[in-house]
């Protein structure tokens, strides 16, 4: 263990299966191991109607992940976002974990790595995930249609999906060109927030067949190194189903 961090809050992660909550679970497993961070997890099955109710009771936008914070040592409740002791939005939850449950090891040292880290956080959460989601939506719509119509609509939407897959190739190329021996992480020399933020969109792209590691070997190697991390593996064991090939 690197160095114990004194926690002011104990987080509880509301983890809907096969959702972005997985990256929060992975990050919490990392800091549990390196800094002795204690956290609770509540696994919620994606297809259970009570899941949305349970999330809604915590925050009006009933999406996963949501994290609640239990103050320790009579620390007063704090409003970090808009409700006391409630965190949402995975990028911000990851930032909170870095700020509160690490000793700063996810913050890049050099100013060039800092700029790169911020760029890739933005790319991950605004551009990459958007294009991946467009592919998913256009692929999924036909599956809700009656059998006869399904194939026709699938044929019609195929060019649209191909358009977004083309967009994705440009994004992967920028990612590929940024990685090298000295900077094997999107955050630069060391793993950092950009890498955590990239992971969900890449999990989805890989699981759904939108990413070809042979065309982007450095990104493929980066992705494999994420999967090999003991904390990622433990998160898979603790979090329940993580299948991004099935929608809803
Ligand atoms: N911007 C949010 C997105 C949260 C979100 O949309 N979560 C999805 C799962 S990945 C969800 O809860 N979907 C359930 C639904 O739409 O009913 C974040 O980054 O945390």
UniProtKB/TrEMBL annotation:
Pfam families associated with the record: GST_C, GST_N
Superkingdom of this protein's organism: Eukaryota
Residue intervals of the GST C-terminal domain: 127-246
Family per record: Belongs to the GST superfamily.
Name listed for the protein in its UniProt record: GST C-terminal domain-containing protein
Species classification: Eukaryota, Fungi, Dikarya, Ascomycota, Pezizomycotina
